[in-house]
Here is the input.
Amino acid sequence: MIKSATRFCTLDLNQGVVVAIILCILAAPVYAIDFNIPESTVTEVAANPEYYDGTFTRGTIAITGMLTNLSDGARISDGTSSIAVDTKQISLFDGFEDGDDVKMIGVFYYRNRNLRESLFVPECILHWPLVDSGTVLVPELVDHPSSYNGKKVTITGNLSDIRESGMGYMIGIEGDGRYADVRFYGRTVLDIGTEVKVTGIFSAGTLYAETLAKHRTLPFNVPGFSGLALVSVLVFVFVRRRRYR
Here is the structure.
């Protein structure tokens, strides 16, 4: 009887541990992509694959090189070595071409009995060195995503939707009747309807925001003038008028 009770308690405890682990996994937050993660070269990864292997311990890394063979089994190469690249998330490659220099952020899997060769699974692909596309209209970004994929962009518009997601927010930005999807992994107290300015990395149809803030403009609308230049002109005009009175 005692043995049966002990066995039941052990089984119940084990089941409790399993349930707790599952709940922790389900409750785990979605973290941001670390676009500033230090880069390794393809040759460095190929020369020491066990060290970079993410099967159990290493996790996310970044490698730089040239995209090749996109139409039939993509690879990243640096002229000395090359590594196969997983292309299941096809939207990551939108707008990229063979020969483009890139930075890939993701997980490297060293070949084992389940893999014929080592494989890099990207979470994000950047044009490298990083290209800054400047300020882009929301309709332009939404209608021509391949032109900005893997690049830094800035948009302005109305904050139309904001929802907590993991450690950050899923945000909608409206501009001229079109909507851009934004992920922001910081804290904000901005309300829906606020005009905002967002700067970040655009990847696979989503803008990963580095900064999110109210969009502040001068109460003047003079094309071709920065705020400082406009103030300087106004001061000059004021001084001139005072002088000739």
Summary: The chain has a mean pLDDT of 83.
